[in-house]
Amino acid sequence: MKVEFEKIAPDEGSSFKLIQWKSQNDRFFWHQHPEYEIIYVKKGSGKLHIGNHLGEYQEGEVMFLGPNLPHTGLGYGVIGEHEEIIVQLKDLFLGNEFMSIPEMETIKKLFERAIFGISFFGRTRSLIAQKMETLASLKGLDRLIHLLEILKILSQSSEYKILNSRDSRFDFRHQDEERINRIYNYVEDNYTNEIKIETIAEIASLTVPSFCRYFKKMTHMTFTDFLNEFRINNACKLLHNNLGISDVCFESGFNNISHFNKTFKHFKGKSPREYRKEVLFIDTLN
Prior knowledge:
Blueprint: E1 17-24, E2 30-31, E3 36-43, E4 46-50, E5 53-57, E6 62-65, E7 71-72, E8 81-89, H1 105-114, E9 118-120, H2 122-135, H3 140-156, E10 160-162, H4 174-190, H5 197-203, H6 208-219, H7 223-238, H8 245-251, H9 257-268, H10 272-285
Antiparallel strand pairs: 1-8, 2-7, 3-6, 3-8, 4-5, 6-9, 9-10
Helix pairs in contact: 1-3, 2-3, 5-6
Protein backbone atom coordinates (compact mmCIF):
# COMPACT_ATOMS: atom_id res chain seq x y z
CA MET A 1 0.00 0.00 0.00
CA LYS A 2 1.49 3.28 -1.04
CA VAL A 3 0.69 6.65 0.46
CA GLU A 4 2.82 9.22 -1.25
CA PHE A 5 3.26 12.66 -2.71
CA GLU A 6 2.64 11.64 -6.30
CA LYS A 7 5.19 12.97 -8.80
CA ILE A 8 3.71 13.50 -12.24
CA ALA A 9 5.45 14.32 -15.52
CA PRO A 10 3.59 15.10 -18.79
CA ASP A 11 3.58 12.49 -21.52
CA GLU A 12 6.41 12.81 -24.03
CA GLY A 13 5.54 15.42 -26.64
CA SER A 14 2.53 16.60 -24.64
CA SER A 15 1.66 19.36 -22.17
CA PHE A 16 -0.34 17.00 -19.94
CA LYS A 17 -0.44 13.36 -18.84
CA LEU A 18 -3.12 10.81 -19.74
CA ILE A 19 -3.44 7.56 -17.80
CA GLN A 20 -5.61 4.55 -18.60
CA TRP A 21 -5.70 2.79 -15.25
CA LYS A 22 -6.95 -0.78 -14.93
CA SER A 23 -6.79 -2.68 -11.69
CA GLN A 24 -8.40 -5.51 -9.79
CA ASN A 25 -8.62 -5.62 -6.02
CA ASP A 26 -6.73 -2.34 -5.91
CA ARG A 27 -4.94 -1.19 -2.80
CA PHE A 28 -5.78 1.77 -0.62
CA PHE A 29 -3.53 4.80 -0.93
CA TRP A 30 -3.91 8.35 0.33
CA HIS A 31 -1.97 10.90 -1.69
CA GLN A 32 -1.80 14.39 -3.15
CA HIS A 33 -0.02 16.12 -6.04
CA PRO A 34 0.32 19.70 -7.36
CA GLU A 35 -1.44 18.88 -10.65
CA TYR A 36 -5.15 19.16 -11.50
CA GLU A 37 -6.84 15.86 -12.29
CA ILE A 38 -9.85 14.97 -14.46
CA ILE A 39 -11.12 11.48 -13.59
CA TYR A 40 -13.57 9.35 -15.55
CA VAL A 41 -14.48 6.03 -13.91
CA LYS A 42 -15.09 3.71 -16.84
CA LYS A 43 -15.72 0.63 -14.72
CA GLY A 44 -16.28 0.01 -11.02
CA SER A 45 -17.80 1.68 -7.98
CA GLY A 46 -16.63 2.22 -4.45
CA LYS A 47 -15.77 4.65 -1.67
CA LEU A 48 -14.94 8.30 -2.23
CA HIS A 49 -12.61 10.19 0.12
CA ILE A 50 -11.52 13.56 -1.27
CA GLY A 51 -10.29 16.18 1.17
CA ASN A 52 -12.88 16.12 3.96
CA HIS A 53 -15.57 14.67 1.69
CA LEU A 54 -16.68 11.08 2.29
CA GLY A 55 -19.13 9.31 0.01
CA GLU A 56 -19.53 6.73 -2.73
CA TYR A 57 -19.03 6.84 -6.48
CA GLN A 58 -20.62 4.83 -9.27
CA GLU A 59 -19.51 3.63 -12.68
CA GLY A 60 -19.44 6.60 -15.07
CA GLU A 61 -18.36 9.09 -12.39
CA VAL A 62 -16.65 12.25 -13.67
CA MET A 63 -14.64 14.47 -11.31
CA PHE A 64 -12.24 17.39 -11.53
CA LEU A 65 -9.82 17.71 -8.60
CA GLY A 66 -7.58 20.65 -7.84
CA PRO A 67 -3.91 20.69 -6.79
CA ASN A 68 -2.75 19.36 -3.42
CA LEU A 69 -6.23 18.05 -2.62
CA PRO A 70 -5.57 14.85 -0.63
CA HIS A 71 -7.60 11.87 -1.85
CA THR A 72 -7.61 8.10 -1.85
CA GLY A 73 -7.17 5.95 -4.90
CA LEU A 74 -10.68 5.12 -6.11
CA GLY A 75 -9.82 1.43 -6.40
CA TYR A 76 -9.82 1.03 -2.61
CA GLY A 77 -12.40 -1.54 -1.51
CA VAL A 78 -13.35 -2.52 -5.06
CA ILE A 79 -13.82 -6.27 -5.27
CA GLY A 80 -13.88 -6.78 -9.05
CA GLU A 81 -12.39 -4.90 -11.98
CA HIS A 82 -11.78 -1.18 -11.84
CA GLU A 83 -10.91 1.10 -14.75
CA GLU A 84 -10.30 4.83 -15.02
CA ILE A 85 -9.18 7.33 -17.65
CA ILE A 86 -7.32 10.19 -15.99
CA VAL A 87 -5.90 13.48 -17.23
CA GLN A 88 -3.31 15.23 -15.07
CA LEU A 89 -2.21 18.77 -15.87
CA LYS A 90 -0.89 21.97 -14.33
CA ASP A 91 -2.92 25.19 -14.33
CA LEU A 92 -0.30 26.77 -16.62
CA PHE A 93 -0.01 23.75 -18.94
CA LEU A 94 -0.59 26.08 -21.91
CA GLY A 95 1.93 28.70 -20.79
CA ASN A 96 2.02 31.58 -18.34
CA GLU A 97 -0.16 33.97 -20.33
CA PHE A 98 -2.72 31.69 -21.99
CA MET A 99 -5.02 31.36 -18.97
CA SER A 100 -5.18 35.16 -18.75
CA ILE A 101 -6.74 35.77 -22.18
CA PRO A 102 -10.48 36.69 -22.17
CA GLU A 103 -11.56 33.49 -23.96
CA MET A 104 -10.25 31.41 -21.04
CA GLU A 105 -12.24 33.21 -18.33
CA THR A 106 -14.81 30.44 -17.75
CA ILE A 107 -12.08 27.77 -17.72
CA LYS A 108 -10.09 29.86 -15.25
CA LYS A 109 -13.13 29.91 -12.94
CA LEU A 110 -13.48 26.13 -13.39
CA PHE A 111 -9.90 25.69 -12.16
CA GLU A 112 -10.71 27.86 -9.12
CA ARG A 113 -13.72 25.69 -8.23
CA ALA A 114 -11.68 22.49 -8.68
CA ILE A 115 -9.54 23.40 -5.66
CA PHE A 116 -12.37 21.98 -3.53
CA GLY A 117 -13.12 19.02 -5.82
CA ILE A 118 -16.02 18.85 -8.30
CA SER A 119 -18.30 15.96 -9.23
CA PHE A 120 -20.36 16.22 -12.43
CA PHE A 121 -23.69 14.58 -13.25
CA GLY A 122 -26.43 14.46 -15.87
CA ARG A 123 -25.73 15.09 -19.55
CA THR A 124 -22.34 16.60 -18.69
CA ARG A 125 -21.19 13.27 -17.29
CA SER A 126 -22.27 11.42 -20.45
CA LEU A 127 -20.58 13.92 -22.76
CA ILE A 128 -17.31 13.86 -20.83
CA ALA A 129 -17.30 10.06 -20.70
CA GLN A 130 -17.43 9.95 -24.52
CA LYS A 131 -14.80 12.68 -24.82
CA MET A 132 -12.40 10.95 -22.40
CA GLU A 133 -12.74 7.68 -24.34
CA THR A 134 -11.85 9.50 -27.57
CA LEU A 135 -9.03 11.48 -25.94
CA ALA A 136 -7.21 8.24 -25.12
CA SER A 137 -6.94 7.42 -28.84
CA LEU A 138 -5.60 10.81 -30.01
CA LYS A 139 -2.10 12.25 -30.26
CA GLY A 140 -0.40 15.61 -30.68
CA LEU A 141 -2.42 18.72 -31.48
CA ASP A 142 -5.65 16.72 -31.91
CA ARG A 143 -5.33 15.50 -28.34
CA LEU A 144 -4.74 19.03 -27.01
CA ILE A 145 -7.72 20.45 -28.91
CA HIS A 146 -9.89 17.63 -27.59
CA LEU A 147 -8.78 18.37 -24.01
CA LEU A 148 -9.76 22.02 -24.48
CA GLU A 149 -13.20 20.84 -25.63
CA ILE A 150 -13.49 18.79 -22.42
CA LEU A 151 -12.53 21.81 -20.31
CA LYS A 152 -15.03 23.96 -22.23
CA ILE A 153 -17.89 21.54 -21.49
CA LEU A 154 -16.94 21.32 -17.81
CA SER A 155 -16.57 25.09 -17.46
CA GLN A 156 -19.98 25.83 -19.01
CA SER A 157 -21.90 23.12 -17.14
CA SER A 158 -24.28 23.77 -14.26
CA GLU A 159 -24.55 20.02 -13.57
CA TYR A 160 -22.01 19.76 -10.78
CA LYS A 161 -21.55 19.76 -7.03
CA ILE A 162 -18.60 21.00 -4.99
CA LEU A 163 -17.26 18.21 -2.77
CA ASN A 164 -15.69 20.32 -0.01
CA SER A 165 -16.84 23.58 1.54
CA ARG A 166 -14.88 26.68 0.61
CA ASP A 167 -13.65 27.13 4.18
CA SER A 168 -12.15 23.61 4.23
CA ARG A 169 -8.57 23.29 5.36
CA PHE A 170 -6.48 20.26 4.44
CA ASP A 171 -3.72 19.89 6.99
CA PHE A 172 -1.79 17.21 5.14
CA ARG A 173 1.99 17.18 5.31
CA HIS A 174 4.73 14.88 4.07
CA GLN A 175 5.21 13.73 7.67
CA ASP A 176 1.58 12.57 7.69
CA GLU A 177 2.08 10.63 4.46
CA GLU A 178 5.00 8.72 5.96
CA ARG A 179 3.11 7.99 9.17
CA ILE A 180 -0.08 6.85 7.44
CA ASN A 181 2.06 4.75 5.10
CA ARG A 182 3.57 2.89 8.05
CA ILE A 183 0.13 2.23 9.51
CA TYR A 184 -1.39 0.95 6.26
CA ASN A 185 1.63 -1.21 5.44
CA TYR A 186 1.48 -2.84 8.86
CA VAL A 187 -2.26 -3.57 8.49
CA GLU A 188 -1.73 -5.06 5.03
CA ASP A 189 1.02 -7.36 6.29
CA ASN A 190 -0.69 -8.37 9.56
CA TYR A 191 -4.48 -8.13 9.15
CA THR A 192 -4.88 -11.92 9.47
CA ASN A 193 -3.42 -11.72 12.99
CA GLU A 194 -4.50 -9.86 16.09
CA ILE A 195 -3.49 -6.18 15.87
CA LYS A 196 -3.37 -4.39 19.20
CA ILE A 197 -4.01 -0.66 19.31
CA GLU A 198 -0.87 -0.26 21.45
CA THR A 199 1.23 -1.82 18.68
CA ILE A 200 -0.18 0.36 15.91
CA ALA A 201 0.16 3.49 18.07
CA GLU A 202 3.83 2.65 18.64
CA ILE A 203 4.33 2.24 14.86
CA ALA A 204 2.82 5.72 14.43
CA SER A 205 5.13 7.06 17.20
CA LEU A 206 2.11 8.28 19.18
CA THR A 207 0.46 7.49 22.48
CA VAL A 208 -2.76 5.46 22.21
CA PRO A 209 -5.11 8.44 22.85
CA SER A 210 -3.13 10.66 20.43
CA PHE A 211 -3.13 7.94 17.78
CA CYS A 212 -6.91 7.45 18.02
CA ARG A 213 -7.51 11.20 17.57
CA TYR A 214 -4.95 11.44 14.77
CA PHE A 215 -6.27 8.48 12.76
CA LYS A 216 -9.88 9.70 13.01
CA LYS A 217 -8.82 13.18 11.89
CA MET A 218 -6.84 11.90 8.89
CA THR A 219 -9.24 9.20 7.66
CA HIS A 220 -12.62 10.11 9.21
CA MET A 221 -12.73 6.53 10.51
CA THR A 222 -11.77 4.93 13.79
CA PHE A 223 -8.87 2.51 13.46
CA THR A 224 -11.15 -0.37 14.50
CA ASP A 225 -13.60 0.45 11.70
CA PHE A 226 -10.76 0.72 9.19
CA LEU A 227 -9.28 -2.62 10.24
CA ASN A 228 -12.67 -4.34 10.16
CA GLU A 229 -13.47 -2.92 6.73
CA PHE A 230 -10.06 -3.99 5.43
CA ARG A 231 -10.68 -7.53 6.67
CA ILE A 232 -14.23 -7.64 5.26
CA ASN A 233 -13.01 -6.51 1.82
CA ASN A 234 -10.51 -9.37 1.85
CA ALA A 235 -13.24 -11.74 3.00
CA CYS A 236 -15.30 -10.72 -0.06
CA LYS A 237 -12.44 -11.76 -2.32
CA LEU A 238 -12.18 -15.13 -0.56
CA LEU A 239 -15.94 -15.69 -0.92
CA HIS A 240 -15.41 -15.82 -4.69
CA ASN A 241 -13.52 -19.09 -4.08
CA ASN A 242 -14.73 -22.42 -2.72
CA LEU A 243 -13.63 -21.84 0.87
CA GLY A 244 -16.16 -22.51 3.61
CA ILE A 245 -17.57 -19.51 5.50
CA SER A 246 -15.69 -20.44 8.67
CA ASP A 247 -12.41 -20.69 6.71
CA VAL A 248 -13.05 -17.27 5.16
CA CYS A 249 -13.72 -15.90 8.64
CA PHE A 250 -10.41 -17.05 10.11
CA GLU A 251 -8.32 -16.32 7.00
CA SER A 252 -9.64 -12.74 7.03
CA GLY A 253 -8.37 -12.12 10.56
CA PHE A 254 -11.55 -12.75 12.56
CA ASN A 255 -11.51 -15.32 15.37
CA ASN A 256 -15.25 -15.54 15.98
CA ILE A 257 -17.89 -16.59 13.43
CA SER A 258 -20.68 -14.61 15.11
CA HIS A 259 -18.60 -11.43 15.16
CA PHE A 260 -17.54 -12.02 11.54
CA ASN A 261 -21.16 -12.39 10.36
CA LYS A 262 -22.26 -9.30 12.28
CA THR A 263 -19.36 -7.18 11.00
CA PHE A 264 -19.83 -8.40 7.42
CA LYS A 265 -23.51 -7.42 7.47
CA HIS A 266 -22.63 -4.02 8.95
CA PHE A 267 -20.32 -3.18 6.05
CA LYS A 268 -22.02 -5.04 3.17
CA GLY A 269 -25.68 -5.01 4.19
CA LYS A 270 -25.97 -8.79 3.87
CA SER A 271 -24.55 -11.96 5.39
CA PRO A 272 -21.46 -13.70 3.93
CA ARG A 273 -23.72 -16.54 2.73
CA GLU A 274 -26.08 -14.10 0.96
CA TYR A 275 -23.11 -12.32 -0.58
CA ARG A 276 -21.73 -15.59 -1.93
CA LYS A 277 -25.12 -16.54 -3.45
CA GLU A 278 -25.21 -13.21 -5.28
CA VAL A 279 -21.66 -13.73 -6.56
CA LEU A 280 -22.48 -17.24 -7.84
CA PHE A 281 -25.67 -15.97 -9.51
CA ILE A 282 -23.79 -13.17 -11.28
CA ASP A 283 -21.12 -15.64 -12.39
CA THR A 284 -23.78 -17.86 -14.00
CA LEU A 285 -25.08 -14.85 -15.94
CA ASN A 286 -21.61 -14.14 -17.26
